[in-house]
Write a structure and sequence with these properties.
Strand content: 15-25%
Largest sheet: 7 strands, parallel
Number of helices: 10
Strand order of the largest sheet: 6-5-4-9-12-14-15
Number of domains: 2
CATH architecture of the largest domain: 3-Layer(aba) Sandwich
Order of helices and strands: HEHHEEHHEHEHEEEHEEEHEEEHE
Radius of gyration: 18 Å
């Protein structure tokens, strides 16, 4: 798949949604972006012409690489930066803390860094994160259950939310898709956002992890207001827009 440097903002957002979920309908995209089905159809046709997406009856899916290809691509984005973010987080989380870990490649890097932290109590809605801890063999992990979504093994739905409601966390660790104009964390999948919000509601502090590729990305829905985020851990100095937004709302950030 070519790099999406020549796409419009809406085309990038549509591509990001399809990369996240694998397949989506025209009606879903039209409702999400508040445009007509005809507008979405035209955008999908343009994306197919450039070999970003494959058009199906009533919707769109990834081009020949499939979902796993998109996930593999994410693994190649800023791997050293994500490792630094994970190591910085491990320096913040104390031994014995109770932690909810979100989904995504940056959170997976954090999970690997946390393997050496004694006594952690971990709950996750990510099959991939759970596998990292299982392979490490250090401590047990609670997996929320639910319906799998996407190649990263994220778990969504009422079962996941109900499991989270039975816990209390010291920290919720979020991966994200981008930032709103006011510095609020955003993502593309409403069901994943619902799981994140459930974890935040049961957590004393929320920490957002974001490599520099997310600084100028915009999701389709807000996860929370920026003032409700205790800390954003990044791998490079944030943009002037983000710095100003975070200063205005009192959100702290740390460059790993």
């Amino acid at each position: 798949m070519p790099a999406p440097g020549n796409l419009t903002t809406r085309q990038k957002q549509i591509l990001a949604v399809v990369q996240e979920v694998g397949f989506t309908t025209i009606e879903t995209l039209a409702a999400r972006f508040d445009v007509s089905a005809q507008t979405v159809r035209r955008e999908i046709i343009r994306l197919q012409e450039q070999n970003y997406l494959q058009r199906f009856h009533g919707g769109a899916g990834l081009a020949s690489g499939g979902i796993r290809s998109a996930y593999a691509q994410k693994l190649t984005v800023s791997p050293q930066g994500k490792q630094r973010i994970g190591e910085a987080l491990a320096g913040i989380i104390p031994a014995g803390a109770s932690v909810f870990l979100d989904v995504g490649t940056t959170v997976e890097a954090a999970a690997r860094a946390l393997l050496g932290k004694p006594g952690l109590r971990v709950v996750t809605a990510s099959v991939s994160v759970a596998q990292i801890f299982c392979q490490g063999g250090v401590f047990d992990v609670v997996v929320t259950g639910g319906v799998t979504r996407g190649a990263n093994g994220s778990l969504v739905g009422q079962q996941a939310i109900a499991t989270i409601a039975g816990f209390r966390f010291d920290y919720t660790i979020l991966g994200i898709g981008g930032f709103d104009d006011d510095g609020a964390p955003m993502d593309f999948d409403l069901e994943k956002i619902a799981v994140r919000q459930a974890a935040m509601a049961r957590s004393r502090q929320t920490v957002v992890l974001a490599d520099h590729s997310k600084f100028n990305q915009v999701g389709t829905a807000r996860i929370t207001d920026p003032g409700k985020v205790a800390l954003v851990v990044v791998d490079a100095e944030p943009t002037e827009r983000l710095r100003k937004a975070w200063l205005d709302c009192g959100c702290r950030w740390r460059v790993a």
